[in-house]
């Protein structure tokens, strides 16, 4: 029952911010097991400007605001594949990841283009938008157009084990986010 709740909750959160269609099938291997186990436990080394009130204070909010962030390199020409997420402060399990991918036609990707362009690829449909770096290059702001709805995501990179993970949040509560890996 718990797994169904999280799959439904993830679907609901994504449905509110994404428009999915298409039948493209993509096989995604879950390489996120180590990532999901360690994201919750890391401490803040640097935090995006929005997550701390003043320098030297611990970030308030959920576990995603407590992870160590790294400087973001030039993202132009990179593709990031959905690898999991967190809903209400709880990591998705593999069953939830697979159910979420199935909901969105087997694909959920972020593709960063030249000149600040970003595309969210979901099954057969795409959402086009832009991204920009924070002043200290530890966060990005992505604004995507889903037809009649514009959704803004805050994103940051965190190194978990040997895997660099892009964590995208549609709000700054730190309890909900999507994980993407290259």
Description:
There is one protein chain. It contains three helices and nine strands, in the order ααββαβββββββ. The chain has helices spanning 2-17, 33-39, 94-103; strands spanning 78-87, 90-91, 108-112, 117-122, 125-133, 140-146, 149-160, 163-169, 177-181. α1 packs parallel to α3 (94-103). The longest helix is centred in the first third of the chain and has 16 residues, at 2-17. The model is unreliable at 1-59 (pLDDT under 50).
What is the string of SSEs from the N terminus onward?
HHEEHEEEEEEE
Radius of gyration (CA) equals 15 Å
Summed over residues and divided by their number, the pLDDT gives a mean of 76
Show unreliable segments. 1-59
Strand order of the largest sheet: 1-3-4-5-6-7-8-9
Alpha-beta classification: alpha+beta
Strand content: 25-35%
Anisotropy-based shape: globular
Figure out the total of helices: 3
Termini separation comes to: 32 Å
Tell me how many strands there are: 9
Query: What is the oligomer described by this structure?
Result: single chain
Kindly summarize this structure in a few lines.
The protein is an alpha+beta fold and 182 residues long. Helices cover 18% and strands 35% of the residues.
Question: What's the SSE blueprint?
Answer:
Elements: H1 2-17, H2 33-39, E1 78-87, E2 90-91, H3 94-103, E3 108-112, E4 117-122, E5 125-133, E6 140-146, E7 149-160, E8 163-169, E9 177-181
Antiparallel strand pairs: 1-2, 1-3, 1-9, 3-4, 4-5, 5-6, 6-7, 7-8, 8-9
